[in-house]
Structures are given as C-alpha cells and as structure tokens.
Write a structure and sequence with these properties.
Blueprint: H1 16-37, H2 44-51, H3 55-61, H4 65-87, H5 94-107, H6 109-122, H7 128-153, H8 159-176, H9 190-197, H10 201-218
Helix pairs in contact: 1-2, 1-4, 2-3, 4-5, 4-6, 4-7, 5-10, 6-8, 7-8, 8-10
Domain HTH tetR-type: 20-80
Pfam family, one: TetR_N
InterPro entries: Homeodomain-like_sf, HTH-type_TetR-like_transc_reg, HTH_TetR, TetR_C_34
C-alpha cells in the first residue's frame, strides 16, 4: 500500500490579528518578489507561492498586484515620513537638513520605486473605492510630515506641505535620471565621467533641495508685516 504525504494547508485566518498577520506576510512576500524579479516580474501566482497561500486566499486580500503595491506604498510612505522626523533634529541648519534628507532618500529605495510608479501605473489599475480609501489613509501621513518640516525647518504654517510636495517631485526626478555607479567605471573618458557624475541621484536630489530651501527662505512669512 502506497502512502501519500499530506501537505498541510494554511488555516483560514479568522481573527483580526490573524488577518493582519496574513496581510503582512503578503506584503513581505511582495517586497521579496520585487527584489528578485523587479516590479514587472511580480505576479499574483508568484506572490501566493512566496507567501505560502493558495491563490484564492490571496484574492481575499488583494484583487490585483497593483493593490498590493498600493498597500506597500502606504506602508513605505509612513516609514519614510518617520525616518525624516528622526533625521531632522530640532533647529537643524539647512545644509545639515539637506544631507539628512538625502541620506533618507538614498537609503529608502523601496519608497522611491513605489512612488515613481504610483500615479502612472499603480493608481491606474486599482478600483476607485480602493484608490479613494488609500488617498484618505495617506492624508494624515502627509499632514504629519508637513508638520514635522514646519517644526524642524522653521517654515510658516502651510509651507511644510508645499515643501514636502516639491521634495517628492524632486525625489522622483532625481530617480528618473540617476546614473548610479556609471561614473565610477574606468572605461569612461574623463570628460564623460564628469557629466555622468552630476546626474547621480544623491547629487541631483541634494542640489534640488538646496534650491527649494533657498526659495522657501525668500518667501515672506504671513506675520512678516505685522
């Protein structure tokens, strides 16, 4: 008589904590899959396998891979805002702030990669109600970040949100033209190496922040004429 090995199926998550743990496992699997295959290589089948779930179970939590990416973006956004709050000490001067913000951006590539796909890909491929809920969930994160920027950088009320929005735009632009380690390759002629070097992510982002901060400092404060 031939015996068959029974493969244990994951039990259905019944409590709120169990469902939250399973959702976290799916997001962790998504991060692992993107690192291995890139965002375009992520599939729902691959996610289910990586998370140890049946494909049907995965669909109970997310209908598309873009919904998974949107959930990842919200988590990455919150983590990014928290890192900025930690990096900017009260009373920090502008150059130190530029260096701190550049370090956060450089070290948080997941947020940069998700943010660069947010409007053009992710938000275009999720149901409207999911998109609306995500926008509402992101609002307190953005407002918290704006408050941090106003407190640590001495901005007037409302200017933290303006600076934060411009900073994200600068972040995405710097990521778009990033030349990475190309400038360090020995085969590049010296004149070309210099051109490539100024397009590195850290250089472009930091220079953009300096210009943004200089512009913010020239803005008249609402109480300046009082």
């Amino acid at each position: 008589m031939t015996s068959k090995t029974q493969v244990a199926k994951p039990r259905r998550a019944r409590t709120a904590d169990q469902k939250q743990d399973r959702r976290a496992a799916i997001l962790a699997a998504a991060i692992a899959c993107t690192r291995e295959s890139g965002f375009d290589g992520v599939t729902m089948s691959g996610l289910a396998k990586r998370a140890g779930l049946a494909k049907g179970t995965l669909y109970l939590y997310f209908e598309t891979r873009e919904e998974v990416f949107l959930a990842l973006y919200l988590e990455a956004l919150g983590a990014w805002a928290a890192r900025i709050a930690e990096a900017l000490a009260p009373g920090i001067d502008d150059e130190a702030a530029v260096e701190a913000l550049t370090r956060v951006a450089r070290d948080d590539r997941l947020f940069v990669e998700l943010a660069s796909r947010l409007a053009s890909v992710i938000e275009q491929n999720v149901p409207l109600d999911t998109l609306i809920e995500a926008k509402r969930n992101s609002l307190p994160i953005y407002m918290g970040l704006a408050g941090t920027l106003e407190d640590r950088l001495g901005f007037a009320p409302g200017d933290g949100l303006r600076f934060g929005s411009a900073m994200v735009a600068q972040l995405l632009g710097a990521a778009q033209i990033d030349t990475g380690d190309l400038a360090t390759r020995d085969a590049l002629p010296e004149d070309i190496r210099g051109i490539v070097a100024v397009s590195r992510f850290e250089t472009v982002f930091a220079d953009g922040l300096r210009l943004l901060l200089a512009g913010m400092r020239r803005r008249p404060r609402p109480d300046a004429g009082a």
